[in-house]
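Structure request: Avidin, Eleutherodactylus coqui.
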Amino acid sequence: MTGVWVNTLGSVLNISAEGSQIRGSLHSSVELHPGAVCEQMPGELVGLVGQGDQPTFTMSTGWKGGSVTAWVGQCFQISGCPVLKTIWLLRSKATIEDNWKATRIGEDVFYQQKKCDVD
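Returned structure:
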């Protein structure tokens, strides 16, 4: 899983996996409110990775303004190319009255930035 990954929206994920630990950064190209994600300040990632050729993993980051995002997923080999398929939760800072709308869920697919030969 170590390497540079890009999702379908252009966010760049840089991961270093050592043993069961993940460290890295995410330069997000998506933001809910203008200025919520600062391009010059990537989110610092921490997480855990399972064992095997197609390991499961979890990672999370905090954002400017108090929001946090967590991903869970698996690294699949598709036609010999690794792909990270994930589900994410984004929790925004909210008042108790707005708690009902403070968590969003979605999917992300990350592909290695280096080209992979697909048959």
